[in-house]
Amino acid sequence: MGLYDVFRNHGFVNIGLSSDTAGFAVESLNRWWDLAGYRHYKDTKRLLITADCGGSNGYKVYLWKVKLQELANRPGKEITVMHFPPGTSTWNKIEHRLFSFISRNWRGKPLISAAVIINLISAVRTDTGLSVECILDNTTYRTGIKVNEEEYNAINIKRHKFHGEWNYTVSPQKLL
After folding, report:
1. Residue with more model confidence, 160 or 1
2. How far apart are CA 172 and CA 78, in angstroms?
3. Distance of alpha carbon 80 from alpha carbon 164, whole angstroms
4. Among 45, 48, 53, 81, which residue's beta carbon has the most beta carbons within 10 A?
5. Bridge-based pairing state of the strands 131-137 and 10-16
6. CA dist., res. 158 & res. 80, Å (int)
């Protein structure tokens, strides 16, 4: 799972050895926050995430939203998610500003181990100042986790007026 910080021109990649699940996607955000985000953005009141429409962080994935709620509660920040409409992920900056350089860097090299992959990704540097941090996630993420109606309804989510299914903000829950 990759994250690209537009403001710092910095990439963060969490290499998983398990399944690409919503749990893995949000844990990748958690790890980014712990290792880089907090250091640079601790005083911000909200985070903005742009994401593809499908996959583990897709707009229809209930577990993604439940896990985002847990993340919003943890740092106490609003998390706004804006999904690219189906078929438009080409315009996601992460594709051109991070993944393309990772692909270039490991082109023609045998990806024989997690250590090799991590070293190749971490070695990415560009003339424009891109740097990339890469870590290994050994956690086993279960697939097929179902979210019940009570869990889903407990999410403190506000859908935006424009395509609320793709654009929404998850705010920290008010604890009683």
Report:
1. 160
2. 6
3. 11
4. 81
5. parallel
6. 9
Map residue 140 onto helix, strand or coil. coil
Which ranges in the chain belong to alpha helices (H)? 22-32, 38-41, 62-73, 93-94, 100-106, 114-122, 149-153
Angle between helical axes of 22-32 and 62-73 (0-180°, round to 10): 30
Tens of pLDDT, residues 83-138: 988 888 777 888 888 999 999 999 999 999 999 999 999 999 999 999 999 999 99
For the chain, how are helix, strand and coil distributed in percent, rounded to 5? 40, 20, 40
Using one digit for the tens of pLDDT, what is the confidence trace for 25-78? 999 999 999 999 999 998 998 999 998 888 888 889 999 999 999 999 987 889
Torsion of CA 58, 100, 47, 143, to 10 degrees: 30
Measure Cα distances from 3 to 43, 91, 116, 147, 174 in Å.
20, 15, 20, 25, 28
Residue 141 DSSP code: P
Structure tokens at 117: 């992959």
Domains of the chain: 2-170 (3.30.420)
